[in-house]
Amino acid sequence: MKLRHKRLAIVVTSVVGLTVAGLFVLNAFRSNLVFFYSPTEVLEGKAPVDQRLRIGGLVVKGSVKKDGTKVQFVVTDLTSKVTVRYQGILPDLFREGQGVVAQGRLVAGDEFLADEVLAKHDENYMPPEVAATLGHPAQKPGGGYYPPSASELGQKK
Amino acid sequence: MLSYAAPKNFYPFAGKLIPWIGFAAVVTLAFGLYLGLFVAPADYQQGQSYRIMFIHVPSAWMSMFVYVVMAAAGAASLVWKTKLAEVLASACAPIGASFTLITLVTGSLWGKPMWGTWWAWDARLTSELILLFLYIGVMALQASIDDPRRAARAAAVLALVGVVNIPVIHFSVEWWNTLHQPASVSKLGMPSIHPSMLAPLLLMAVGFKLYFVAMVLVRMRYQILERERHTQWVAQVVESEK
Protein backbone atom coordinates (compact mmCIF):
# COMPACT_ATOMS: atom_id res chain seq x y z
CA MET A 1 0.00 0.00 0.00
CA LYS A 2 2.77 2.39 0.97
CA LEU A 3 4.71 1.73 -2.21
CA ARG A 4 1.60 2.47 -4.28
CA HIS A 5 1.14 5.82 -2.62
CA LYS A 6 4.75 6.64 -3.31
CA ARG A 7 4.39 5.77 -6.98
CA LEU A 8 1.19 7.79 -7.20
CA ALA A 9 2.95 10.77 -5.65
CA ILE A 10 5.86 10.43 -8.10
CA VAL A 11 3.56 10.23 -11.13
CA VAL A 12 1.37 13.15 -10.02
CA THR A 13 4.26 15.43 -9.10
CA SER A 14 6.16 14.72 -12.31
CA VAL A 15 3.11 15.36 -14.50
CA VAL A 16 2.25 18.56 -12.64
CA GLY A 17 5.90 19.67 -12.67
CA LEU A 18 6.33 18.98 -16.37
CA THR A 19 3.07 20.74 -17.23
CA VAL A 20 3.99 23.82 -15.23
CA ALA A 21 7.49 23.86 -16.74
CA GLY A 22 6.04 23.43 -20.24
CA LEU A 23 3.56 26.24 -19.75
CA PHE A 24 6.33 28.53 -18.47
CA VAL A 25 8.39 27.82 -21.59
CA LEU A 26 5.39 28.46 -23.84
CA ASN A 27 4.57 31.64 -21.97
CA ALA A 28 8.10 32.84 -22.66
CA PHE A 29 7.58 32.11 -26.36
CA ARG A 30 4.17 33.72 -26.28
CA SER A 31 5.07 36.94 -28.04
CA ASN A 32 7.38 35.20 -30.53
CA LEU A 33 4.88 32.57 -31.57
CA VAL A 34 2.54 34.91 -33.38
CA PHE A 35 1.33 33.79 -36.78
CA PHE A 36 0.78 37.38 -37.89
CA TYR A 37 1.25 40.99 -36.78
CA SER A 38 -1.48 43.61 -36.72
CA PRO A 39 -1.09 46.83 -38.76
CA THR A 40 -0.55 48.79 -35.53
CA GLU A 41 2.31 46.52 -34.48
CA VAL A 42 3.85 46.87 -37.95
CA LEU A 43 3.61 50.67 -37.95
CA GLU A 44 4.93 50.91 -34.40
CA GLY A 45 7.98 48.93 -35.47
CA LYS A 46 7.21 45.90 -33.33
CA ALA A 47 7.35 43.62 -36.36
CA PRO A 48 10.74 42.62 -37.82
CA VAL A 49 11.92 44.89 -40.63
CA ASP A 50 13.62 43.71 -43.87
CA GLN A 51 12.32 40.25 -43.34
CA ARG A 52 9.34 38.22 -44.49
CA LEU A 53 6.42 38.60 -42.13
CA ARG A 54 2.67 38.21 -42.03
CA ILE A 55 0.19 40.91 -41.26
CA GLY A 56 -3.43 40.27 -40.44
CA GLY A 57 -6.57 42.31 -40.04
CA LEU A 58 -9.81 43.22 -41.75
CA VAL A 59 -10.05 44.25 -45.39
CA VAL A 60 -11.33 47.83 -45.43
CA LYS A 61 -14.62 48.12 -47.30
CA GLY A 62 -14.28 49.72 -50.70
CA SER A 63 -10.49 49.53 -50.65
CA VAL A 64 -10.14 46.54 -52.97
CA LYS A 65 -8.84 47.50 -56.42
CA LYS A 66 -8.44 44.72 -58.95
CA ASP A 67 -6.52 44.88 -62.22
CA GLY A 68 -6.39 41.43 -63.76
CA THR A 69 -4.59 39.31 -61.19
CA LYS A 70 -3.11 42.39 -59.52
CA VAL A 71 -4.95 43.30 -56.36
CA GLN A 72 -4.54 46.13 -53.92
CA PHE A 73 -6.42 46.51 -50.65
CA VAL A 74 -6.12 48.07 -47.23
CA VAL A 75 -5.87 45.99 -44.06
CA THR A 76 -6.90 47.49 -40.75
CA ASP A 77 -7.16 46.55 -37.09
CA LEU A 78 -9.56 49.51 -36.68
CA THR A 79 -6.61 51.57 -35.37
CA SER A 80 -4.02 51.63 -38.15
CA LYS A 81 -4.06 50.85 -41.85
CA VAL A 82 -1.57 49.16 -44.15
CA THR A 83 -1.93 48.97 -47.93
CA VAL A 84 -1.30 45.51 -49.32
CA ARG A 85 -0.34 44.82 -52.94
CA TYR A 86 -0.62 41.29 -54.25
CA GLN A 87 -0.56 39.43 -57.54
CA GLY A 88 -2.27 36.05 -57.66
CA ILE A 89 -5.44 34.17 -56.89
CA LEU A 90 -7.37 35.14 -53.79
CA PRO A 91 -9.07 32.50 -51.60
CA ASP A 92 -12.86 32.07 -51.77
CA LEU A 93 -13.42 33.70 -48.41
CA PHE A 94 -11.53 36.90 -49.32
CA ARG A 95 -14.13 39.63 -48.90
CA GLU A 96 -14.32 43.21 -47.85
CA GLY A 97 -14.82 43.44 -44.10
CA GLN A 98 -13.43 39.92 -43.67
CA GLY A 99 -10.23 38.90 -41.87
CA VAL A 100 -7.12 38.14 -43.95
CA VAL A 101 -3.51 37.22 -43.32
CA ALA A 102 -0.98 38.41 -45.92
CA GLN A 103 2.60 37.15 -46.12
CA GLY A 104 5.35 39.23 -47.67
CA ARG A 105 7.51 42.21 -46.82
CA LEU A 106 7.09 45.89 -46.05
CA VAL A 107 8.28 48.05 -48.95
CA ALA A 108 7.47 51.55 -47.85
CA GLY A 109 6.36 52.82 -44.45
CA ASP A 110 2.81 51.57 -44.71
CA GLU A 111 2.90 49.56 -47.93
CA PHE A 112 3.12 45.80 -47.91
CA LEU A 113 4.04 43.62 -50.88
CA ALA A 114 2.39 40.23 -50.36
CA ASP A 115 3.23 36.97 -52.08
CA GLU A 116 0.51 35.01 -50.31
CA VAL A 117 -2.92 36.06 -49.07
CA LEU A 118 -4.90 33.77 -46.77
CA ALA A 119 -8.45 34.33 -45.60
CA LYS A 120 -9.38 33.92 -41.95
CA HIS A 121 -12.87 32.97 -40.98
CA ASP A 122 -14.42 33.57 -37.61
CA GLU A 123 -15.84 31.02 -35.20
CA ASN A 124 -19.46 31.85 -36.05
CA TYR A 125 -21.56 29.40 -38.02
CA MET A 126 -25.14 30.21 -38.99
CA PRO A 127 -27.59 29.97 -41.89
CA PRO A 128 -27.68 32.96 -44.30
CA GLU A 129 -31.17 33.99 -43.10
CA VAL A 130 -29.92 34.36 -39.53
CA ALA A 131 -26.87 36.27 -40.70
CA ALA A 132 -29.13 38.62 -42.67
CA THR A 133 -31.17 39.49 -39.58
CA LEU A 134 -27.90 40.23 -37.76
CA GLY A 135 -26.98 42.62 -40.55
CA HIS A 136 -23.79 40.95 -41.71
CA PRO A 137 -22.07 42.87 -44.51
CA ALA A 138 -21.77 39.65 -46.51
CA GLN A 139 -25.55 39.77 -46.74
CA LYS A 140 -26.06 43.53 -46.99
CA PRO A 141 -23.66 45.15 -49.42
CA GLY A 142 -22.97 48.66 -48.28
CA GLY A 143 -23.91 47.78 -44.70
CA GLY A 144 -21.73 48.61 -41.75
CA TYR A 145 -19.00 46.53 -40.16
CA TYR A 146 -20.07 43.32 -38.56
CA PRO A 147 -18.51 43.47 -35.08
CA PRO A 148 -15.14 41.83 -35.79
CA SER A 149 -13.96 39.11 -33.46
CA ALA A 150 -10.77 39.65 -31.48
CA SER A 151 -9.06 36.88 -33.43
CA GLU A 152 -9.69 38.59 -36.75
CA LEU A 153 -8.01 41.71 -35.48
CA GLY A 154 -5.05 39.79 -34.17
CA GLN A 155 -5.81 40.73 -30.59
CA LYS A 156 -5.09 38.26 -27.84
CA LYS A 157 -7.52 37.86 -25.02
CA MET B 1 -16.89 -4.61 -9.69
CA LEU B 2 -13.14 -4.91 -9.20
CA SER B 3 -13.26 -8.48 -10.43
CA TYR B 4 -14.05 -7.16 -13.92
CA ALA B 5 -10.51 -5.74 -13.96
CA ALA B 6 -9.15 -9.28 -14.09
CA PRO B 7 -8.40 -10.06 -17.76
CA LYS B 8 -10.15 -13.40 -17.41
CA ASN B 9 -13.46 -11.74 -16.50
CA PHE B 10 -13.01 -8.67 -18.66
CA TYR B 11 -12.67 -10.71 -21.86
CA PRO B 12 -16.22 -12.17 -21.99
CA PHE B 13 -17.74 -9.01 -20.45
CA ALA B 14 -16.25 -6.80 -23.19
CA GLY B 15 -17.33 -9.35 -25.78
CA LYS B 16 -20.95 -8.92 -24.70
CA LEU B 17 -20.75 -5.10 -24.69
CA ILE B 18 -19.14 -4.61 -28.12
CA PRO B 19 -22.17 -5.41 -30.36
CA TRP B 20 -24.45 -3.07 -28.37
CA ILE B 21 -22.02 -0.15 -28.30
CA GLY B 22 -21.09 -0.74 -31.93
CA PHE B 23 -24.75 -0.73 -32.95
CA ALA B 24 -25.40 2.49 -30.98
CA ALA B 25 -22.34 4.06 -32.68
CA VAL B 26 -23.56 3.15 -36.19
CA VAL B 27 -27.07 4.50 -35.51
CA THR B 28 -25.80 7.75 -33.95
CA LEU B 29 -23.26 8.34 -36.72
CA ALA B 30 -25.81 7.63 -39.46
CA PHE B 31 -28.35 9.99 -37.89
CA GLY B 32 -25.70 12.65 -37.24
CA LEU B 33 -24.39 12.45 -40.81
CA TYR B 34 -27.92 12.66 -42.21
CA LEU B 35 -28.68 15.78 -40.13
CA GLY B 36 -25.31 17.31 -40.92
CA LEU B 37 -25.23 16.65 -44.66
CA PHE B 38 -28.91 16.96 -45.61
CA VAL B 39 -30.88 18.81 -42.93
CA ALA B 40 -28.49 21.47 -41.57
CA PRO B 41 -28.54 24.70 -43.61
CA ALA B 42 -25.57 26.07 -45.57
CA ASP B 43 -23.29 28.48 -43.74
CA TYR B 44 -23.62 32.23 -44.38
CA GLN B 45 -19.91 32.57 -45.19
CA GLN B 46 -18.63 29.16 -46.18
CA GLY B 47 -21.65 27.76 -48.02
CA GLN B 48 -21.62 23.97 -48.24
CA SER B 49 -17.90 23.57 -47.55
CA TYR B 50 -18.35 23.98 -43.81
CA ARG B 51 -20.01 20.54 -43.65
CA ILE B 52 -16.58 18.89 -43.39
CA MET B 53 -16.75 20.28 -39.85
CA PHE B 54 -19.02 17.37 -38.86
CA ILE B 55 -16.04 15.02 -39.35
CA HIS B 56 -13.19 17.42 -38.59
CA VAL B 57 -14.34 18.80 -35.24
CA PRO B 58 -15.46 15.53 -33.58
CA SER B 59 -12.26 13.78 -34.66
CA ALA B 60 -10.21 16.70 -33.31
CA TRP B 61 -12.01 16.40 -29.99
CA MET B 62 -11.42 12.64 -30.05
CA SER B 63 -7.73 13.04 -30.83
CA MET B 64 -7.34 14.91 -27.53
CA PHE B 65 -9.85 12.83 -25.55
CA VAL B 66 -8.22 9.52 -26.51
CA TYR B 67 -4.82 10.93 -25.56
CA VAL B 68 -6.07 11.86 -22.10
CA VAL B 69 -7.59 8.38 -21.68
CA MET B 70 -4.30 6.82 -22.81
CA ALA B 71 -2.23 8.96 -20.44
CA ALA B 72 -4.62 8.32 -17.53
CA ALA B 73 -4.49 4.57 -18.18
CA GLY B 74 -0.71 4.86 -18.38
CA ALA B 75 -0.61 6.65 -15.02
CA ALA B 76 -2.88 3.99 -13.50
CA SER B 77 -0.63 1.24 -14.86
CA LEU B 78 2.44 2.92 -13.35
CA VAL B 79 0.83 3.35 -9.95
CA TRP B 80 -1.31 0.24 -9.48
CA LYS B 81 0.42 -2.06 -12.00
CA THR B 82 -2.93 -3.31 -13.27
CA LYS B 83 -2.67 -5.30 -16.49
CA LEU B 84 -5.97 -3.98 -17.75
CA ALA B 85 -4.73 -0.38 -17.57
CA GLU B 86 -1.63 -1.32 -19.56
CA VAL B 87 -3.79 -3.03 -22.17
CA LEU B 88 -6.14 -0.02 -22.33
CA ALA B 89 -3.26 2.43 -22.81
CA SER B 90 -1.73 0.45 -25.65
CA ALA B 91 -5.14 -0.12 -27.29
CA CYS B 92 -5.79 3.64 -27.28
CA ALA B 93 -2.66 4.68 -29.18
CA PRO B 94 -3.48 3.53 -32.76
CA ILE B 95 -7.10 4.71 -32.46
CA GLY B 96 -6.03 8.14 -31.22
CA ALA B 97 -3.39 8.35 -33.93
CA SER B 98 -6.07 7.62 -36.55
CA PHE B 99 -8.35 10.35 -35.19
CA THR B 100 -5.42 12.79 -35.24
CA LEU B 101 -4.60 11.88 -38.83
CA ILE B 102 -8.27 12.31 -39.84
CA THR B 103 -8.26 15.72 -38.13
CA LEU B 104 -5.15 16.85 -39.99
CA VAL B 105 -6.32 15.55 -43.39
CA THR B 106 -9.87 16.94 -43.17
CA GLY B 107 -8.51 20.22 -41.80
CA SER B 108 -6.16 20.44 -44.74
CA LEU B 109 -8.99 19.72 -47.20
CA TRP B 110 -11.06 22.43 -45.50
CA GLY B 111 -8.18 24.91 -45.33
CA LYS B 112 -7.40 24.91 -49.04
CA PRO B 113 -10.74 26.31 -50.28
CA MET B 114 -11.41 28.54 -47.25
CA TRP B 115 -8.06 29.93 -46.11
CA GLY B 116 -6.29 29.40 -49.42
CA THR B 117 -3.65 26.98 -48.11
CA TRP B 118 -3.37 23.28 -47.29
CA TRP B 119 -1.14 23.93 -44.32
CA ALA B 120 0.15 26.81 -42.20
CA TRP B 121 2.64 26.59 -39.36
CA ASP B 122 0.34 28.28 -36.90
CA ALA B 123 0.17 27.19 -33.26
CA ARG B 124 -3.05 25.14 -33.53
CA LEU B 125 -2.00 23.15 -36.59
CA THR B 126 1.54 22.60 -35.34
CA SER B 127 0.48 21.41 -31.87
CA GLU B 128 -1.98 18.96 -33.46
CA LEU B 129 0.85 17.63 -35.66
CA ILE B 130 2.99 17.19 -32.52
CA LEU B 131 0.11 15.16 -31.07
CA LEU B 132 0.33 12.78 -34.05
CA PHE B 133 4.08 12.41 -33.45
CA LEU B 134 3.43 11.70 -29.76
CA TYR B 135 0.99 8.90 -30.66
CA ILE B 136 3.46 7.46 -33.16
CA GLY B 137 6.21 7.69 -30.52
CA VAL B 138 4.08 5.81 -27.98
CA MET B 139 3.27 3.11 -30.55
CA ALA B 140 6.91 2.80 -31.61
CA LEU B 141 8.06 2.53 -28.01
CA GLN B 142 5.50 -0.17 -27.29
CA ALA B 143 6.56 -2.11 -30.37
CA SER B 144 10.28 -1.85 -29.68
CA ILE B 145 10.25 -3.54 -26.25
CA ASP B 146 9.45 -7.24 -26.19
CA ASP B 147 8.36 -7.57 -22.56
CA PRO B 148 4.79 -6.18 -22.53
CA ARG B 149 5.04 -4.90 -18.96
CA ARG B 150 8.27 -2.99 -19.53
CA ALA B 151 6.91 -1.69 -22.85
CA ALA B 152 3.77 -0.43 -21.09
CA ARG B 153 5.84 1.37 -18.46
CA ALA B 154 8.05 3.14 -21.01
CA ALA B 155 5.08 4.12 -23.16
CA ALA B 156 3.19 5.41 -20.11
CA VAL B 157 6.06 7.73 -19.20
CA LEU B 158 6.17 9.14 -22.74
CA ALA B 159 2.37 9.51 -22.84
CA LEU B 160 2.41 11.39 -19.52
CA VAL B 161 5.14 13.76 -20.67
CA GLY B 162 3.09 14.52 -23.78
CA VAL B 163 0.04 15.52 -21.73
CA VAL B 164 1.51 19.06 -21.69
CA ASN B 165 0.53 19.30 -25.34
CA ILE B 166 -3.21 18.87 -24.70
CA PRO B 167 -3.91 22.27 -23.07
CA VAL B 168 -1.56 23.81 -25.62
CA ILE B 169 -3.72 22.47 -28.48
CA HIS B 170 -6.90 23.68 -26.83
CA PHE B 171 -5.73 27.16 -25.86
CA SER B 172 -3.40 27.79 -28.83
CA VAL B 173 -6.11 29.75 -30.62
CA GLU B 174 -6.48 32.05 -27.63
CA TRP B 175 -2.85 32.45 -26.63
CA TRP B 176 -1.46 33.29 -30.03
CA ASN B 177 -2.53 34.87 -33.30
CA THR B 178 -3.40 31.87 -35.39
CA LEU B 179 -4.87 31.31 -38.82
CA HIS B 180 -7.22 28.81 -37.20
CA GLN B 181 -10.33 30.43 -35.74
CA PRO B 182 -11.08 30.21 -31.99
CA ALA B 183 -13.39 27.62 -30.41
CA SER B 184 -17.08 27.77 -31.35
CA VAL B 185 -18.57 25.27 -28.93
CA SER B 186 -16.33 24.89 -25.88
CA LYS B 187 -16.27 28.47 -24.76
CA LEU B 188 -17.94 30.45 -22.02
CA GLY B 189 -21.41 31.64 -22.84
CA MET B 190 -23.46 30.61 -25.85
CA PRO B 191 -21.79 28.52 -28.54
CA SER B 192 -21.35 30.73 -31.61
CA ILE B 193 -22.83 28.09 -33.82
CA HIS B 194 -26.47 27.93 -34.84
CA PRO B 195 -28.52 25.19 -33.06
CA SER B 196 -29.40 23.60 -36.43
CA MET B 197 -25.67 23.02 -36.99
CA LEU B 198 -24.77 22.32 -33.36
CA ALA B 199 -27.18 19.37 -33.04
CA PRO B 200 -25.56 17.22 -35.77
CA LEU B 201 -22.11 18.23 -34.51
CA LEU B 202 -22.86 17.00 -30.98
CA LEU B 203 -24.51 13.84 -32.35
CA MET B 204 -21.39 13.10 -34.37
CA ALA B 205 -19.27 13.71 -31.26
CA VAL B 206 -21.35 11.16 -29.29
CA GLY B 207 -21.13 8.73 -32.22
CA PHE B 208 -17.34 9.07 -32.41
CA LYS B 209 -17.09 8.42 -28.65
CA LEU B 210 -19.24 5.26 -28.92
CA TYR B 211 -17.17 4.10 -31.89
CA PHE B 212 -14.00 4.64 -29.87
CA VAL B 213 -15.32 2.62 -26.92
CA ALA B 214 -16.32 -0.26 -29.22
CA MET B 215 -12.97 -0.22 -31.03
CA VAL B 216 -10.91 0.03 -27.86
CA LEU B 217 -12.75 -2.98 -26.41
CA VAL B 218 -12.09 -5.00 -29.59
CA ARG B 219 -8.38 -4.15 -29.45
CA MET B 220 -8.18 -4.84 -25.72
CA ARG B 221 -9.71 -8.30 -26.19
CA TYR B 222 -7.11 -9.24 -28.80
CA GLN B 223 -4.28 -7.97 -26.64
CA ILE B 224 -5.56 -9.82 -23.58
CA LEU B 225 -5.68 -13.08 -25.56
CA GLU B 226 -2.13 -12.54 -26.76
CA ARG B 227 -0.72 -11.63 -23.36
CA GLU B 228 -2.49 -14.46 -21.54
CA ARG B 229 -1.98 -17.04 -24.27
CA HIS B 230 -0.18 -19.44 -21.91
CA THR B 231 -2.97 -19.49 -19.33
CA GLN B 232 -5.63 -22.08 -18.77
CA TRP B 233 -8.62 -19.83 -19.44
CA VAL B 234 -7.36 -18.70 -22.85
CA ALA B 235 -6.87 -22.34 -23.79
CA GLN B 236 -10.50 -22.94 -22.82
CA VAL B 237 -11.70 -19.92 -24.82
CA VAL B 238 -9.77 -21.10 -27.87
CA GLU B 239 -11.16 -24.62 -27.39
CA SER B 240 -14.75 -23.35 -27.20
CA GLU B 241 -14.32 -21.21 -30.33
CA LYS B 242 -13.27 -24.18 -32.44
Polypeptide structure, described:
The complex is a heterodimer of chains A (157) and B (242). Chain A is of the alpha+beta class and 157 residues long. Chain A has helices at 2-29, 39-43, 128-134; strands at 53-59, 65-67, 70-76, 81-87, 99-108, 111-119. A 5-stranded mixed barrel of chain A has the order 1-3-4-6-5. The longest helix of chain A is centred in the N-terminal third of the chain and has 28 residues, at 2-29. Chain A is elongated. Chain B is mainly alpha-helical and 242 residues long. Chain B has one domain: Up-down Bundle (Four Helix Bundle (Hemerythrin (Met), subunit A)), CATH 1.20.120. Chain B is built from 8 helices and no strands. In chain B, α4 (123-144) runs antiparallel to α5. At the A-B interface, α1, β6 and α3 of A face α2 and α6 of B.
Tell me roughly what share of residues is in helical segments of chain A: 25-40%
> How many distinct beta strands of chain B?
0
Report the major sheet of chain A: 5 strands, mixed, barrel
The largest interface is: A-B, 52 and 44 residues
Short overview:
The complex is a heterodimer of chains A (157) and B (242). With 157 residues, chain A is of the alpha+beta class.
Comma- or semicolon-separated keywords:
heterodimer; A: 157 residues; alpha+beta; OB fold (Dihydrolipoamide Acetyltransferase, E2P); 2 domains; 5-stranded mixed beta barrel; 3 helices; 25% helix; elongated; B: 242 residues; mainly alpha; Four Helix Bundle (Hemerythrin (Met), subunit A); 8 helices
